[in-house]
Design brief:
five-stranded antiparallel β-sheet, six-stranded mixed β-sheet, 8 helices, alpha+beta, 369 residues
């Protein structure tokens, strides 16, 4: 059931369309991520949900309450929306202590004294900062500042938590640690989260569902597994992770299977299920120019002999890196170069002609663009 509903949301800046008529339904307790590159409209969408930007069209509902509607001339102010927000810069007041920063939303709501002290103590314990109430904000590490910002956003028990790239200012190791802590915190509090990021790993690891945006529109909405393994558009396919793209031509269609002759690569025809065709009508025709796409993790290294296995292609091995428990092989198929991972028990040498097995469930068929 929809808890936060966005309908036909539209926003432009000086004739540049930032958000172009998007529709979203977000469930209560869901960790929902807006993912895309800079300028795709994800932060503008988040700011309109939080009331920091006024849309030029559309409506936003929280439960049964309409928060904003141009048609109804309705706009609920940010402080009345019962939403907490953490900005990319954390936006802590440097002249205040941890307690003063965290308690500020309570002060705005008229909550003072022992009640405020208890709420601040509870939320600081929740984010792992108990005992640091009197610490000046500038004296905190980056990770501690992020926790203070989270505590401030959670202290008044909001219905929705809005996060605008809160991990981007942390170093790689701390970012990984805080990613795990953030997911754990969201599950303990059971709060609805809308998370904005350009980082694919953050989106895939944290989210219940992901909305991938491009130029103000939604390219695809789905679970991390759905958008990664079953991309709806070529943009989503190429934006998430790495992909081998093999040009070819459909040579046969029979028994719910499609046979593809791959151009410029020594291989037998590839055989895919018709259900793996990605096109407007889900069909293909004999003679059609196509692209076969597959993720590197769906490719297995067979060595120097194909052993008569179906769905194998010949490749050049460019380099080998030994990482203790595994090898990383840089391989070239046609004009595509990707890194494959294989157990340390299987070794091939640089310069070898090798064969790669493409797992049929991992291959998708796309019309040539």
């Amino acid at each position: 059931m929809s808890f936060l509903r966005i309908q036909n949301l539209y926003k432009s800046f000086d004739r540049v369309i930032a958000v172009n008529g998007i529709n979203l339904d977000i469930a209560q307790g869901e960790f929902f991520t807006l993912l895309g590159s800079s300028g795709c409209g994800k932060t503008t969408t988040l700011r309109m949900v939080g009331g920091l930007e006024k849309p030029d069209g559309g409506e936003i509902y929280l439960g049964d309450q309409c928060l904003v509607s141009r048609e109804k001339n309705l706009f609920i102010k940010p402080e009345k929306r019962n939403m907490g927000m953490v900005f990319q810069s954390y936006a802590l007041w440097p002249h205040m202590t941890v307690f003063e920063n965290v308690s500020y939303p309570l002060k705005l709501r008229g909550i003072k004294g022992r009640e405020a002290e208890k709420k601040v103590a509870d939320v600081l314990a929740l984010v792992g900062l108990a005992g640091l109430e009197e610490r000046p904000a500038p004296a905190l590490s980056g990770g501690q500042q992020q926790r203070v910002a989270l505590a401030r956003a959670l202290v008044f028990s909001p219905k929705v938590l809005l996060l605008d790239e809160p991990l981007s200012n942390l170093d790689a190791q701390l970012r990984e640690e805080m990613r795990r802590e953030l997911k754990s915190l969201q599950q303990r509090v059971n709060i609805t989260v809308i998370f904005v990021t350009h980082d694919q790993i953050e989106a895939l690891s944290l989210s219940d569902r992901i909305a991938i945006m491009k130029f103000g529109v939604l390219e695809q909405v789905g679970t991390p597994e759905e958008v990664y393994y079953h991309p709806a558009t070529s943009f989503v396919r190429d934006f998430l992770g790495k992909t081998f793209l093999l040009p070819g031509k459909v040579s046969g269609i029979a028994n719910q299977q499609v046979t593809v002759e791959v151009h410029g690569i020594a291989s037998a025809p590839l055989v895919l299920q018709q259900s793996n065709i990605v096109s407007s009508n889900g069909t293909s025709t004999v003679g059609q120019s196509v692209m076969v796409a597959i993720r590197p993790e769906q490719v297995a290294i067979l060595g120097t002999m194909a052993d008569g296995r179906p769905n194998t292609v010949q490749a050049n091995l460019q380099s080998v890196l030994f990482l203790g428990d595994r090898y990383e092989y840089t391989v070239e198929i046609g004009s595509e170069t990707r890194v494959l991972v294989s157990p340390a028990s299987k070794q091939v040498k640089r310069g070898d002609k090798i064969f790669l097995e493409l797992k049929p469930e991992g291959m998708t068929l796309w019309p040539r663009e």
